[in-house]
Specification:
The protein is of the alpha/beta class and 259 residues long. The chain has three domains: 54 residues, no CATH class; 98 residues, no CATH class; 98 residues, 3-Layer(aba) Sandwich (Rossmann fold), CATH 3.40.50. Helices cover 30% and strands 20% of the residues. It contains eight helices and twelve strands. Strand 8, helix 5 and strand 9 form a beta-alpha-beta unit. Helix 2 packs across helix 7.
């Protein structure tokens, strides 16, 4: 197990802990973050090493981790293509058939769409799902410089992304008054070796950009490694209030049952 945070910011860098855990460690004060190949063993060690011990464990990608018992399963669907064409990997993007949704306690529709979480839940009834559905639309914040402050309106930027769907990031950046000089994409979870950093710096110089604008996930891997201005585009989810009320009730029930 690697202890990424005890609730007071990252203790490890992204090359050791991974980009998303380090990002979460910086975004969630008061929340401990641990990583490990064995989820059960990581949880057991967390109980021993963290004081006071946690009452709730939140697993990323825990739905398919069938070996580990979970009390509550939340299943998220991206709004731009919720059912991924209904096809499994490698022909599609589904990790499991849609019939697996019957294991979920609730479904959450993420991103921007005219659909609602309730409508997604209704569409899944035919696959055996009988729980509630909630919406968690995304909010894109103003681009922020890593050195502090907002990226000025009209700034010329080079967009850099190493995420599964970079087009989402590019479209979000175009919502702002920015002069987009060019775009660079890398594979999801790219580690940015020195050759990639050189490529970014060369593209930056050739584009005559004022800054490199990237995702918050990529920012944690590029911070301090480029001798050029770096900025990020913060994107946060804003779940509907009903989700928090439902989750509070379920957590209270689970905690009461073990006390």
């Amino acid at each position: 197990m690697r202890l990424v945070s005890t609730g007071e910011g990252p203790l490890l860098g992204p090359t050791v802990a991974g980009d998303e855990p380090v990002l979460l460690a910086g975004m969630l004060p008061g929340v401990s973050v641990v990583v490990g190949p064995d989820r059960y063993e990581a949880g057991r060690q967390a109980m021993e090493r963290l004081g006071p011990g946690p009452e709730v464990f939140v697993l990323d990608d825990g739905f398919s981790h069938l070996r580990l018992f979970r009390d509550i399963d939340l299943l998220a669907f991206p709004s731009d293509d919720p059912f991924a064409g209904g096809r499994l990997l490698p022909g599609g993007r589904l990790r499991e058939p849609l019939s697996a949704v019957r294991r979920a306690d609730a479904v959450i529709l993420t991103g921007e769409t005219e659909l609602t979480g309730a409508e997604i839940a209704s569409a899944l009834r035919g696959f055996g799902f009988d729980g509630p559905g909630f919406s968690a639309p995304s909010r894109v914040g103003r681009p922020r410089l890593a050195a502090g402050g907002l990226l000025p309106d009209g700034a010329r930027v080079l967009l850099v992304a190493a995420i599964a769907r970079p087009q989402r990031f590019f479209e979000a950046a175009r919502q702002f008054d920015l002069d987009i000089a060019d775009t660079l994409t890398f594979a999801d979870h790219h580690d940015y070796p020195s050759s990639s950093l050189t490529g970014i710096e060369e593209a930056y110089q050739e584009s005559h950009a004022d800054a490199v604008l990237t995702t918050t996930k990529d920012e944690v891997k590029l911070l301090g490694r480029l001798d050029i201005p770096l900025a990020s585009l913060p994107v946060t989810a804003e779940p509907q209030e009903e989700l928090w009320l439902w989750l509070d009730r379920r957590l209270d029930q689970q905690i009461a049952a073990i006390r």
